[in-house]
Amino acid sequence: MVDVLIPLSVSGVWYPYLAEDLAQSGSIGITVLLEPFSYAKVGNGEGILINGEKVRLDNVEYLSRKLGKVKVEIETGVPLGYGYGLSASISLAYALGASEIKGIDPYLAVLEAHKSEIIAKNGLGDIVSQYFGKNIVYREKPGFPPYGVVRSFPIDSDNIYSLPIESLPTTTILKPLDVSFELIQDFLQNPTLERFFSVSKRFTELLGFESKYPNSFRKKGLILKFGEPESESWIRHRIAKRGAYVE
Question: Taking every annotated instance into account, which residue ranges of this chain make up the domain GHMP kinase N-terminal (predicted)?
Answer without folding.
Answer: 60-134
